[in-house]
Specification:
Length: about 120
Amino acid sequence: MDRYQIYKYLHLVGIILTFLSYGMLLYKDKIQKGKSLAIANGVGLFLILLGGGGMQAVLKVGMQPWVIAKMVLWVILGAVIVLIKRKPDQKILTAWVLISIGAIATYLGVFKNLLFF
């Protein structure tokens, strides 16, 4: 396996772990959520950053506008856990925000372009 594939694998595992932890946080109601889901979320976010940065270095992409946009989305994705904990009554809205972040990040990663048409 070359370095690009390893970084891509780490990136995808981080995405799965992050969105799975958010799904579990949104699903749980009055059950004590514990620290394990927050830790899983943090590890997932770290793997997303590690894998994305590694792929960026291997491909020698540089700081193009779509890369900066993905980094902004990563910061927003990291802040969503605060929204879940402080506004538990807004679970549907939070779920749609997460879906939108995922869709936009996927678009940017696949097409490497900021134009949405």
